[in-house]
Amino acid sequence: MNKIYETSLLLDFYGQLLTDRQYEILDLHYNNDFTLTEIAEQLNISRQGVYDNEKRGRAQLIEYENKLGLLGKFSQQKQKAQNVLEMMKKLKLDSLGRENADIIKKVITEIEDLANNI
């Protein structure tokens, strides 16, 4: 998982536990692609202040993840849903009765929805 994607997900899980300033800076940087210089100009603070807040905020997010592991559990559940979906798609629906085939199609639809929205 790359740093930007990982930090964006960590913000989703733990962002509200950061200070308002840290959250704002990390949100602008990782979710809105602002550079540190652009954030400094927008918030009227020094680039070094943005850097320090970004560094402390990201360290805090990683510490929360190490203690709580919500992102890891989320990633595992998403992967398991995708694995089940792949296995379901390999079933030969033609060999099943119509009623069972319809049930399997509905289960596949539900798992696809689950896997795409986790």
Write the layout of secondary structure elements.
Elements: H1 3-14, H2 20-31, H3 36-43, H4 47-68, H5 70-89, H6 98-117
Residue ranges: pLDDT <50 for 5 or more in a row? none
Q: What's the number of extended β-strand segments?
A: 0
Please work out how many helical segments DSSP would assign: 6
Radius of gyration based on Cα positions:
21 Å
Distance between the termini: 16 Å
Q: What do the pLDDT scores average to?
A: 92
- What is the string of SSEs from the N terminus onward? HHHHHH
User: Which shape, going by the Cα principal axes?
Assistant: elongated
Q: Report helical residue fraction.
A: over 70%
Q: What profile does the largest beta sheet have?
A: none
Beta-strand fraction estimate: under 5%
Q: Give the class from helix and strand content and strand pairing.
A: mainly alpha
Outline:
The chain has six helices and no strands.
Structural write-up:
- This protein has helices spanning 3-14, 20-31, 36-43, 47-68, 70-89, 98-117.
- It has 118 residues and is mainly alpha-helical.
- Helix 3 (36-43) crosses helix 4 (47-68).
- It is elongated, with a radius of gyration of 21 Å.
- The model has no long low-confidence stretch (mean pLDDT 92).
Any descriptors?
118 residues, mainly alpha
